[in-house]
Amino acid sequence: MTLFFANFQTGSAQTGDVRAAIEAFSRLRSRACCQPTRNLQSLVNSLAEYYDQLTVFEKRFEQTAPQHLEGFKWNDAFESGKSFFGKTQNSVSDIFLERAAVLFNYGAVLSQIAASQSFLTDDETKTAAKLFQQSAAAHKNLTNDLNPETLLAFSNIMLAQSQEAFYRKAYAEKLNPKALVKVAAQAADFYSEASKTMDLTKNYWKKEWLNTIAGKAFGFQAIAEFHGAQVRRFYFLFYFTHQR
What we know:
Pfam families: BRO1. The protein has helices at about 1-5, 15-35, 40-60, 95-115, 120-140, 150-170, 175-200, 205-244, and strands at about 70-75, 90.
């Protein structure tokens, strides 16, 4: 890192300036990647700030030989022992993988904030749906950097949860059954697609995850059929009444 930041300096730059730049960058990474916190919004902000800095420095890192960079250390995201990198802890001197790992965590924390909503109010439900969509976008943007099938599964799971939040909102607002059929059916489709993509990388996922996502797909299919039956019942009663 010393040699990297030295490349930014002019001939008259002091060693202290380089050291200060290294320390500032390290503190930023520490806040974003290494310090556990219960304040998820603060963590999201730190990840976004660090990601922005990585993007700014990316071209410079490209021009810097890998041996001039200290490895960026990351732990495995999967408790199963599987990893995007092939082992549970990794130290890589690759700015692109560092940026990808930060974006992965950013999407993961967004989903945590979304899941932490109580869904008791309209605003909370809309917030959850929006955050799940943002998380899906973050994971989808990573498919060129990490395992594409696994990241696509993450993205599909987030989209499914976003649609589930929309269903909760629609049901709470007592939308007519015909509208609820569409919302529930879309949630079922998203969960079904998520289940299919998870099956492509079964070894990464806990069995509970696989069962939960598959169960939600079947559950929302059943909900859609239930609302469909309500629609058919309404038309049957309407037709029967007008035939008498």
